[in-house]
Prior knowledge:
Chain B: Belongs to the Ntn-hydrolase family. Chain A is of the alpha+beta class.
Amino acid sequence: MSAVLVVHGGAWAIPDKLAKASVDGVKGAACEGFSVLKEGGSALDAVEAAVRSMEDNAVFNAGHGAALNTDGEVELDAIIMDGRTLDCGAVSSVQNIANPVSLARAVMEKTCHVMLMGRGANLFAESIGVATVPTDSMVTEYERKEWEKQKNYITGVMEDFNSQWAHDTVGAVAVDCAGNVACATSTGGIRNKMVGRVGDSPVIGSGGYADNCSGAVSCTGHGESILKVTLARLILSYIEQGKSAADASQLSLEYMGSRVQGAGGAIVVTPPGQWAATFTTERMAWAAVENDILWYGLDPNERVKEQLSRQ
Amino acid sequence: MLPVVVVHGGAGHIPKERSKNSMSGVCSATRAGYAVLKGGGSSMDAVVEAVTQLENNPSFNAGCGSVLTVKGDVEMDAIVMDGKTLGSGAVSAVRNIANPVQLARLVMDKTSHACLTAEGASQFARSMGVPEVPQESLITEYARMRWKKNLAPGANPVECQMGKMGTVGAVAVDSEGNVACATSTGGILNKMEGRVGDTPCIGCGGYADNQTGAVSTTGHGEAIMKVTLARLILFHMEQGQSVEAASDLGLAYMKSRVEGLGGVVTVDPQGNWAARFSSLQMAWAAAQKDTLHYGLYCGEHFTQSIEDPN
Lengths: 311, 310
């Protein structure tokens, strides 16, 4: 049984000045997640490790480096799902937590609920000894500047070009040696979003879904559009009907574009080890590891191959 | 065949002394939703009207009559979805609002977002001129009694709750063939603060698509989420299953894969509808061609003229 891990660092018109850091970031995260699989770790452990790596990396809009809401605060969303049991954990609008994906996993493993939000999620974090991090340490100069800039944009104009918005949500999917699949997604949400805005990332079936019967998906892109078509679940429904991971992703993203004029990207993995990284935005930073080979890309149809050094 | 509205008031085990109120409540809400449709209103107007009535009715776990969190507060979730545009609005863990379903609709109509939570939802409500109501006005003696009872160690709130205090919801198709859904709830008895269930999660608590149909769900929220029940039922319909078969397949899968029980109301754009449940009971009612349909126990299907009083 072949273990595979795929990560994405956001589907949007990634500017050249962020391109190298984004690609380096996803490559690093993919290697970190894959090393968990190589040591016999579970798909769940692997996706958590990969996403944590990107939450800790300030170039991505998740954990450190998250976008600010209209009040200038950080509100984070994350989801993690276990394809074997369909167990799921999610947090939305949680503040000042360095690794929301791990908090989401704690919701899954330590409570009888699937999703906790806001103050309730923060109280839960406190109760299990997860530290609160000061806002300043999570906010980058870049985000603060972007927030100030965007406060002056006319909202209507921005609406028309949702693929131009920064959508650097991060995510990972994996299948482990036992054939179990898992997904995880984490984000700071849309820059200058309304206070309490919940996007697709923490919503099961939209930001992510994992089921051993079909596969695991993590999505990125225009959140409201992803929600309208329940993108992750839609992709898996095509796989259930016999489509390949790549075709299922392409069909679903095209549907999202035509039905609700939304652009985005998705990474998919299936239990037999098929995988795909697909996007309808200008760029998506992604990386995948399979059989000690690292694949990655940024621009459409770009697929670079690197041999991982053997330990 | 058109228009149609179908309403549910919760799936589970409704004690006899509460079933009369549940049944009259869903019938009344159905009549109200149907009147909107007959008057030329849209399916969205109809489902919001039906659910608003159930939120105002203290016999249901939505709006007034909501279950309490473990701390004794009221936190509510709601969703609406428009099958024509796939537009959707939801609120989660919102406090001090009499009609979360109406606030969810405002999120859809007046913002570029799909879901607002907690304090953000309250801020938005204020900006829309939606009045804040004291929490006490939403809490019933019954809700308080169930809360106290379930604080005792060894209590099983999930089991205790099933059906006695039901999430409410409605689906409709109007004369133009547009479908819509709406769902509203106070959530699970004695839930953790900030717990969000299936109701405001698109594809779980509800989904509507003019190409296929609309669904509103009720039952064990976490189980509904794990199988994205509303979306699952519509996938079956996309594959050619009838409203009834699709609903049954979805519910059976939820029971076998994640051991969860629940109920759904489902409608397709042609006006076929179903009210199905895997729990012991679900209070439901539907209106079509001036006939009121309703039931509570599995297999029950009563009809009367819509004009006849309750």
